[in-house]
């Protein structure tokens, strides 16, 4: 692959119409549709297998590539398939932060941490819906996984960051502040070990053999996303096991709405457009059990005025607690600005329309890196105003109620106590009085699907018969249970590498069925 | 059946060890276990069918019997199977309250109501996770369903009740304050129409035919709950359709813990012991999609000092807001006493041990019917004390902190404003000062599973391919989506009768496949 492809960062790449478009397209052409579709009972063996590998991995993100490497190191022949025309899935557009308890950056900075503390943070964020053994596994092996990425894979990590919900600074970031800083070295390592990686190859069905064992999969090679009729059907035998690492379903509107009916096409997603979850459905059709699919995380920091993840979140998240968030319909605050992701997103959704966040020059100057602000203003997501009246006019906010609300907020800031919503105010928060003023519209986007396939601590997929589905492993966002109700920022990388490696080792170590 | 059997009310019948016991037993012998088990792909047709009906209904609660009657009225031959040695499931131990918007009792009492208001209440309780079309269906047809029960089925309803979370008095109760007041007339009607009902017959598997159509089921006849090896395998052909109305999984500890890991064997259930959900799993193994299985409702009003639903809840629920709830470990309050079911249960679970609720003679005398109090004291769940010190000694509460807390609470009551937890205090609440004092220990029990099979408004079960599973219908607690995050009290009956009837009509109206 070219360096250009390798360095591709898709943050901001996703068009605004993506989610709505997919809702219709994907469900017009699901894996099991067509006259030959006959439900899971019909998953008969093909007349012949077109290709044979020991282990077949579905997905080219952190989890899939980590699994492929470990399976290969067990002596297995390994194929990795990717339905999109580019590899890396959401991993390659991720911010490159890896939570690792007790990592060397923490030690250098004098930060006290432990797997127990990370576990505690994960369980608190997850409302204790996390499968405890899975959460513990990620916390306990997070630093080992980080070190594996650094020393064996050769990924460069350069700084220690803080993420909301963590008790301490725990997240180590790639040199290029992007998941590509890990995806690319993983891909290099995998291919250097002899793993075969093919793009535009979509799994349409798992093939079940005797006693419910997964023996391979049906794919479409030369698949041109999102044309479900494209490509050529083909059967790939997996002699040892299949590993599913195909990500979540944030971009699948119809499936989202089954699990959380509020998440209509009004909600776009920060995810890459292929995050549509057909692999989860295909696995369930083959007997795998799903769990906690209704815990779908929205980012409250995205703006309808730019596509994808965008540049606004880095402004919004820095000024919460320094500026105020108001409902443009009445000019009033409606929730504490420093509430967590879920609380704020729920509050905005309940209003039913975008809200605005406002900061003055003091807040912006103190909290936002000039380059970030410049970019956000350049794309037009953050706007600057010489007066609060002009700001109100721009967003159609009733002027006097808005000015009254700012005055009320300023009173709270002076007393360092929000009497209305108990927003956390920082010691250096100041009243919003210094022109120019900045504002940005906010409307949540779907960011992560916590639910997915049930797995055990060996990364085996559990079926509706409550037993492992033979020959089937899974890791990463396609699984459920690690994060419970809410995934903390930067734990996705830890989860994917820890469990991807386990899945790969166990899949590679399976006894061949033929 | 004998009148004795018919009048059986199983409220309070379930032994304390039931849940823990079931956890082990049920999952030692799941439907798909054994050397012939081969996952859903193996669901081949039997060599011969032992019996044939047009429609086979699984479950003898409100939903199953309503479905059987409507299917029979469509001209279908109908078999209803029940795995337990008694019919009625949870329906027969339910309190007999039926929420119906705009019912005649409301009109007589001058209560203004509408389906829109009932829908609003359901969506609010359900945190808008309800499938809107399903919730609307129940609200809009609730009164029609009630009238059908009264006029066509002949069930007697005699009083109008209020239930928490409803905007108005909306719940009409059976003459005997038990679900048996509806189950028995439904059963009489069904058998008089020629529906066959058999007990001790457990579905172990759905049988899938061509193109994924459900064509019948495998059962064990003469099944002796909970011995999974008991009974004789048998195949029943369903020429038109199968209707699943087998209830939820509150008593299935292993399955509960997959979806909400907090719900260990420490939590018993108010449900009948057979509420173990194998029918949900069997349906999913046959391609049906499940939804919102992690929304499991606990009643915060049950006591570890009596089994099942018990007598305590009727004391507890009447004195919240009049008396205080404390953590015996430190004598302090920990949550608002008038929080909703979920909030209170979550708060008690977070403490990790039973709490106590305390009321004085004023609160008890004003709020609790003497007969109810007498029964609760007779079984020992509510205890009486001449002093607060004696009460503290009984439950091992540190005395002085407890007395301080009661004094603090009394101060809030006097000001009619709880400064600690914002508990709703009623205009006639009075300080807890009048001996004798009463107390009861509280520990939540699993009460209802909101999640289940995905259905559409025609009661068709939806598969993982997002399309209806041909020949398969479902209604009642086995389904998910109607109630969203929280089911309101008394809407279970409305849901079961409305959707049971729809399932029966549509199943009975299917074209026979053979």
Automatic annotation (TrEMBL), chains A, B:
The protein's matches in SUPFAM superfamilies, at most eight in alphabetical order, are given as:
FAD/NAD(P)-binding domain (SSF51905), Succinate dehydrogenase/fumarate reductase flavoprotein, catalytic domain (SSF56425)
- What keywords appear on the UniProt entry? FAD, Flavoprotein, Membrane, Oxidoreductase, Transmembrane, Transmembrane helix
Q: Which cofactor does it need?
A: FAD
> Keyword Transmembrane helix on this protein?
yes
Residue stretches spanning the membrane: 12-32
The record ties this protein, via Pfam families, to: FAD_binding_2
Looking at the keywords, is Oxidoreductase present? yes
Which InterPro entries does this chain map to?
FAD-dep_OxRdtase_2_FAD-bd (IPR003953), FAD-oxidoreductase_2 (IPR050315), FAD/NAD-bd_sf (IPR036188), Flavocytochrome_c (IPR010960), Succ_DH/fumarate_Rdtase_cat_sf (IPR027477), TAT_signal (IPR006311)
Judging by the UniProt lineage, the source's domain of life is: Bacteria
Q: Which NCBIfam families match?
A: flavo_cyto_c
Name of the featured protein: Flavocytochrome c
Q: Which source organism does the UniProt entry give?
A: Candidatus Geothrix skivensis
């Amino acid at each position: 692959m070219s360096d250009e492809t390798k360095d591709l960062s898709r943050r901001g790449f996703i068009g605004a119409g993506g989610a709505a478009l997919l809702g219709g397209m994907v469900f017009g052409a699901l894996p099991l549709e067509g006259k030959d579709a006959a439900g899971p009972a019909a998953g008969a063996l093909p007349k012949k297998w077109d290709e044979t590998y020991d282990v077949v991995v579905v997905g080219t993100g952190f989890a899939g590539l980590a699994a492929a490497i470990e399976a290969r190191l067990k002596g297995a022949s390994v194929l990795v398939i990717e339905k999109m025309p580019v590899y890396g899935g959401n991993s390659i557009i991720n911010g490159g932060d890896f939570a690792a308890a007790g990592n060397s950056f923490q030690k250098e900075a004098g930060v006290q941490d432990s797997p127990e503390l990370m576990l505690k943070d994960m369980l608190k964020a997850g409302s204790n819906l996390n499968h405890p053994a899975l959460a513990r596994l990620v916390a306990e092996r997070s630093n080992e996984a980080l070190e594996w990425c650094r020393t064996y894979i050769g990924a460069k990590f350069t700084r220690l960051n803080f993420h909301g919900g963590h008790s301490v600074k725990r997240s180590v970031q790639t040199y290029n502040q992007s998941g590509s800083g890990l995806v690319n070295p993983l891909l290099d390592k995998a291919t250097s070990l002899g793993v075969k990686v093919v793009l535009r190859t979509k799994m349409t069905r798992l093939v079940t053999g005797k006693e419910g064992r997964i023996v391979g999969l049906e794919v479409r090679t030369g698949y041109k996303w999102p044309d479900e009729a494209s490509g050529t059907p083909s059967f790939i035998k997996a002699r040892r096991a299949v590993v599913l690492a195909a990500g979540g379903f944030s971009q699948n509107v119809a499936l989202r709405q089954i699990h959380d009916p509020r998440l209509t096409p009004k909600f776009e997603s920060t995810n890459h457009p292929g995050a549509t979850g057909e692999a989860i459905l295909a696995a369930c059709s083959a007997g795998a059990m799903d769990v906690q699919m209704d815990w779908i995380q929205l980012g409250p920091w995205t703006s309808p005025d730019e596509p994808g993840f965008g540049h606004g979140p880095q402004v919004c998240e820095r000024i919460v607690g320094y500026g105020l968030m108001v409902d443009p319909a009445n000019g009033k605050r409606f929730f504490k600005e420093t509430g967590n992701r879920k609380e704020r997103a729920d509050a905005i959704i309940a209003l039913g329309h975008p809200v605005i966040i406002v900061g003055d020059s003091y807040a912006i100057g103190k909290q936002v890196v000039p380059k970030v602000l410049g970019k956000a203003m350049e794309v037009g997501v953050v706007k600057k105003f010489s007066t609060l009246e002009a700001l109100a006019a721009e967003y159609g906010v009733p002027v006097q109620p808005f000015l009254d609300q700012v005055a009320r907020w300023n009173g709270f800031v002076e007393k360092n106590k929000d009497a209305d919503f108990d927003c956390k105010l920082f010691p250096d928060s100041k009243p919003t009085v210094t022109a120019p003023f900045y504002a940005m519209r906010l409307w949540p986007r779907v960011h992560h699907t916590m639910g997915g396939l049930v797995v055990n601590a060996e990364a085996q997929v559990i079926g509706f018969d409550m037993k492992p589905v033979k020959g089937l492993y899974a890791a990463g966002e396609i699984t459920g249970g690690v994060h419970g109700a809410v995934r903390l920022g930067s734990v996705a990388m830890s989860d994917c590498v820890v469990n991807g490696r386990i899945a790969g080792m166990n899949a590679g170590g399976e006894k061949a069925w033929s």
